[in-house]
């Protein structure tokens, strides 16, 4: 990149020559300001445009600045040129830029969903955000944003009814035979497969309705331990039941 | 690389999505799987929703505090409100327990947090507020494809 | 992303296709619309297509359970015909699969309910 | 709907992207145009980068504070550091002025903030830190479907 510091007076001389029709002076002005244009173009990264294209547009802004710069004012050329370059690029971007985010995000969200599915089967596991971004050739930011952005304000508001009295659990509310997460019978069978302490914990928790702390006290262990064991056991019961169902 | 982030936002329901998004952005730098990311978003949603609807009973002029930190790929998320607090934490954490069946809550929030994270700790003082702290070890992408 | 709900009524069956993110914020506004819709059209059965629902938390569970209760009172059924793994996991965790019927497509859900009717 | 969000994060360069994402998520709820969203991300990036590389000279153990608020579709973003401050704010804001040509900075940060936002205010005290406050009126939703 040929870009070098040029002294103030030389710049003014080149502008004068350029404005009176000297093409080579005009070219020299462009050459010596390449860095300037690039540093503006950089700021428009990630807008889905080719950097070289933006550079061309920026260079047009620069030329306009050369042509319009008023030598009778005592400002530096760069001070005048930077806004012209930015303005030129912004004008170029404006049409596309005025699309609402919600719309473009929706389109990307669909692509992300497809990529997610394709990569999952290809990799045999869920892909990472970066893998999806690489696959679609977009930034990880965009992948994230497409997953959750543009939340339109909701239209209707509902009245909240206050109910006095004891809180009712869902279990109470769901009528019929629902006694927890499990079929009563299946769980009995599953329980038989457990170690004694584990079985006891489940028994106390789900048949005797004890809290985790109560169980902890009864068994002389901490509540956190109860919680851990319970989690592990529930998982193993679920697996057991799934297998039982498949069999 | 370890990192930390704290933020504070208004107790309006719109911020449930914002909190999810912030959490996802914070975690994204560690290249989590989409599954981990979705777990993280879900538990943040649960904790922040609880702060808003239970802690502050839906009043919008309060603040919810969230802190995230990552140390050696262990993610810690803390969600705090200065709301009404929980009288019996144990009971509140039971699956299907809800104090607001009238609002069609299902009482699954804490259970979901428990399942999706490696650890969940709830500290609450009636009249003072509630702090939920959750941790999760992220898998490393390499570790998976041995 | 906001939650979009597409509703389709066939006889006494209401089909809901949900899209986006179903959290507490979204549920608040959807619920009242939904109850109105169901009352006005004397809905007996509900078919849920959640294949495009990107996110759901316990608020969504509450919404579906709430509708389930009123459907159940009317002697109807709630049929799930599609959901993402994330949503399925929540259903599993909360025992929802015990009260929901599961079918592979909207068509099959309809024909099954047709048979039940 | 008005809203506000404050956050604090470590002065590591990874958080430039995080800050951008948070700002984008905050603004996205107001359905900005793509151009507006890019502008917002860019200026947050500029201000946060300045705080990290100039304010804290790249030291990673400090904190950057960011506050966003939205009132009647006017977005205000404040980025603050407790770093070394700026001696001559006027001069620093001139296009192409940089104190770090050695780092290949181009001195364009403030100029970009100025152009992408409706207003930029810099308050700084040497030795104390710098606060950059920027505002932008988002286009209204109706304005585009004429
Ligand atoms: N931040 C909080 N402040 C005060 N009370 C809380 C808070 N979080 C939870 N609770 C209490 O704990 C109970 C259980 O919370 P949990 O999230 O498990 O269920 P829920 O919020 O009632 O229902 P769901 O989360 O399924 O919609 C709540 O009903 C409430 O009484
Ligand atoms: N937060 C800050 N703390 C201390 N000094 C600052 C801070 N922000 C900016 N400055 C000073 O202001 C100058 C101009 O900032 P500006 O962002 O315009 O340019 P730059 O950062 O040097 O280069 P560029 O942003 O183009 O990479 C900086 O070089 C620095 O001296
Ligand atoms: Mg809850
Ligand atoms: Mg800068």
Summarize the structure in words.
The complex is a heterotetramer, with one copy of chain A (247 residues), two copies of chain B (146 residues) and one copy of chain C (117 residues). Helices cover 67% and strands 0% of the residues of chain A. Chain A is built from 13 helices and no strands. Chain B is α+β, with helices and mostly antiparallel strands. Chain B has five helices and five strands. Chain B has helices at 14-28, 34-55, 89-92, 109-116, 141-144; strands at residues 3-10, 63-71, 74-81, 119-125, 129-137. In chain B, strand 2 and strand 3 form a beta hairpin. In chain B, helix 1 packs antiparallel against helix 2 (34-55) and helix 2 runs antiparallel to helix 4. Chain B starts with a strand and ends with a helix. In chain B, 57% of the residues are buried. The mean pLDDT of chain B is 93. Chain C is of the alpha/beta class and 117 residues long. The longest helix of chain C has 17 residues, at 24-40. The N and C termini of chain C lie far apart (36 Å). Chains in contact: A-B, A-C, A-D, B-C, B-D. Chain A binds chain B through residues 116, 125-130, 132, 140, 144-145, 147-149, 151, 153, 160-163, 167-171, 173, 181, 211-213, 223, 227, 231, and chain B through 14, 17, 20-21, 24-25, 28, 31-35, 37, 41, 58, 90-91, 93-103, 106-107, 114-115, 141, 144-145. The complex binds adenosine-5'-triphosphate (2 copies) and magnesium ion (2 copies). The site of one magnesium ion has 5 residues of chain B, from helix 2.
Mean of residue pLDDT of chain B? Answer: 93
The radius of gyration over CA of chain B amounts to 15 Å
The whole-angstrom Rg of chain C is 13 Å
Largest interface: A-B, 33 and 35 residues
Q: What structural category characterises the helix and strand content of chain B?
A: alpha+beta
Q: What structural class should be given to the helix and strand makeup of chain C?
A: alpha/beta
Oligomer: heterotetramer
| H/I helix tally of chain B | 5
Largest sheet of chain C: 5 strands, mixed
Determine the N-to-C terminus distance of chain C: 36 Å
Secondary structure tally: strands of chain C: 5
Overall geometry of chain C comes to globular
Secondary structure blueprint with pairings:
The complex is a heterotetramer, with 1 copy of chain A (247 residues), 2 copies of chain B (146 residues) and 1 copy of chain C (117 residues).
Chain A: H1 8-19, H2 23-32, H3 34-42, H4 51-68, H5 77-97, H6 101-123, H7 129-136, H8 140-147, H9 170-173, H10 184-192, H11 196-207, H12 212-219, H13 223-246
Helix pairs in contact in A: 1-2, 3-4, 3-5, 4-5, 6-7, 6-8, 7-8, 12-13
Chain B: E1 3-10, H1 14-28, H2 34-55, E2 63-71, E3 74-81, H3 89-92, H4 109-116, E4 119-125, E5 129-137, H5 141-144
Antiparallel strand pairs in B: 1-2, 2-3, 3-5, 4-5
Chain C: E1 4-10, E2 13-22, H1 24-40, E3 45-56, H2 58-73, E4 78-83, H3 85-93, E5 101-102, H4 106-116
Parallel strand pairs in C: 2-3, 3-4, 4-5
Antiparallel strand pairs in C: 1-2
Helix pairs in contact in C: 1-2
């Amino acid at each position: 990149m040929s870009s070098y510091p040029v002294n103030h007076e030389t710049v003014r001389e080149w502008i004068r020559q350029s404005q009176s029709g000297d093409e080579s002076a005009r070219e020299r002005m462009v050459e010596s300001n390449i860095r300037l244009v690039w540093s503006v173009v950089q700021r428009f990264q990630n807008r889905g445009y080719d950097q070289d294209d933006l550079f061309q547009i920026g260079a047009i802004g620069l030329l306009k600045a050369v042509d319009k710069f008023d030598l009778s004012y005592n400002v530096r050329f760069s001070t005048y040129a930077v806004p012209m370059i930015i303005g030129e690029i912004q004008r170029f971007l404006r049409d596309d830029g005025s699309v609402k985010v919600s719309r473009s995000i929706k389109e990307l969200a669909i692509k992300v969903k497809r990529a997610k599915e394709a990569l999952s089967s290809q990799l045999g596991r869920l892909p990472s955000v970066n893998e999806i971004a690489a696959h679609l050739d977009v930034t990880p930011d965009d992948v994230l944003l497409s997953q959750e952005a543009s939340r339109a304000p909701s239209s209707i508001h509902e009245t909240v009814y206050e109910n006095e009295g004891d809180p009712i659990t869902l279990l109470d509310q769901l009528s019929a035979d629902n006694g927890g997460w499990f079929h009563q019978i299946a769980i009995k069978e599953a329980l038989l497969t457990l170690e004694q302490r584990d079985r006891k914990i489940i028994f106390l928790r789900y048949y005797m309705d004890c809290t985790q702390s109560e169980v902890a006290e009864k068994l002389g262990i901490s509540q956190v331990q109860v919680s851990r064991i319970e989690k592990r056991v529930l998982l193993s019961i679920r697996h057991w039941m799934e297998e039982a169902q498949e069999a | 690389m370890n990192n930390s982030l704290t933020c504070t936002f208004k107790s309006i329901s719109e911020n449930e999505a914002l909190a999810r998004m912030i959490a996802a952005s914070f975690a994204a730098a560690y290249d989590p799987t989409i599954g981990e990311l979705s777990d993280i978003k879900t538990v943040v949603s649960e904790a922040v929703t609880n702060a808003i609807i239970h802690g502050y009973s839906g009043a919008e002029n309060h603040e919810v505090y969230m802190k995230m930190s990552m140390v050696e790929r262990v993610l810690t998320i803390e969600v705090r409100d200065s709301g009404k607090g929980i009288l019996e934490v144990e009971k509140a954490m039971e699956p299907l327990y809800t104090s607001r069946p009238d609002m069609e809550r299902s009482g699954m929030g804490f259970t979901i947090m428990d399942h999706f994270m490696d650890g969940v700790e709830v500290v609450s003082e009636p009249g003072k507020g509630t702090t939920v702290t959750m941790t999760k070890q992220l898998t490393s992408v390499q570790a998976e494809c041995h | 992303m906001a939650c979009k709900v597409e509703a389709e009524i066939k006889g006494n069956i209401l089909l809901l296709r949900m899209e986006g993110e179903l959290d507490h914020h979204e549920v608040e506004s959807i619920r009242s619309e939904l109850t109105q819709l169901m009352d006005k059209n004397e809905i007996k059965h509900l078919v849920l297509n959640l294949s495009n629902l990107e996110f759901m938390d316990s608020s969504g569970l509450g919404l579906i359970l709430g509708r389930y209760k009123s459907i159940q009172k009317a002697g109807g059924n709630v049929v799930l015909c599609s959901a993402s793994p994330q949503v399925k996991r929540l259903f599993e965790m909360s025992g929802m699969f015990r009260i929901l019927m599961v079918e592979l497509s909207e068509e099959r859900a309809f024909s099954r309910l047709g048979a039940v009717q």
